[in-house]
């Protein structure tokens, strides 16, 4: 079935360092969403990308959608302790079915 | 306040004892779904519902049932829970198909002993 692979599974960075998580799909996606889950919390929607090659920014977060609409990335510049949590990508293949990646756990050392 | 409410938040039960996890949303969303979250596996969809009386299997439906008698409620039923259903469960809703974000409930941590 449809799979969305997400790497790395886990990353531990020093505060101020950059962080990137990547998602790859085996098939073309109609759009991709990113969610953040704080420790002990629930996933919260961050952003949605729809167009091929689209790039969106939210303060220190930069989201990209690949030209082939099969991959995406989330980059955080100069991480802060408030960035800790698990970041999920979720690709939409058809209809309203969202397929989630396994998530990347981010820990930030201060 | 727009929200998705799950109950209970925590539950410890014994193998074979039927249980229901409730989910309710106050946003008049058509689409609702259930996920389970396990370490290293991310969020896997159990069942989803496109509207009242319309439900369908997700990726891991075995051992679960759902119903959608009203638009706002989407309970998850475990008729005979087993230890491999120990997990963190999330209910989510969204306005419909297409370019819509999912709103998640607070989660239910279930332990089956």
Molecular structure report:
The complex is a heterodimer of chains A (110) and B (113). Chain A has 110 residues and is mostly beta strands. In chain A, 0% of the residues lie in helices and 55% in strands. Chain A contains no helices and eleven strands. Chain A has strands spanning 4-7, 10-14, 19-25, 31-37, 44-49, 55-58, 61-65, 71-76, 85-92, 98-100, 104-109. In chain A, a hairpin with a 5-residue loop joins strand 7 and strand 8. The model of chain A has no long low-confidence stretch (mean pLDDT 94). Chain B has 113 residues and is mainly beta. The A-B interface holds A 1, 6, 9, 31, 33, 35, 41-45, 48, 50, 88, 90, 95-103 and B 31, 35, 40-45, 48, 50, 59, 90, 94, 96-107.
| Rg over C-alpha atoms of chain A, rounded to the nearest angstrom | 13 Å
Order of helices and strands of chain B: EEEEEEEEEEE
Low-confidence region ranges of chain A: none
Q: What is the overall number of helices of chain B?
A: 0
Overall structural class of chain A, as computed from helix and strand content, comes to mainly beta
Mean pLDDT of chain A, to the nearest integer, reads: 94
Distance between the termini of chain B: 36 Å
Q: From the structure provided, what is the oligomeric state, counting identical versus distinct chains?
A: heterodimer
Q: What is the helix tally of chain A? A: 0
Annotation, overall tally of beta strands of chain A:
11
Unreliable spans of chain B: none
Strand content of chain A: over 45%
Note the run of SSEs of chain A as H and E: EEEEEEEEEEE
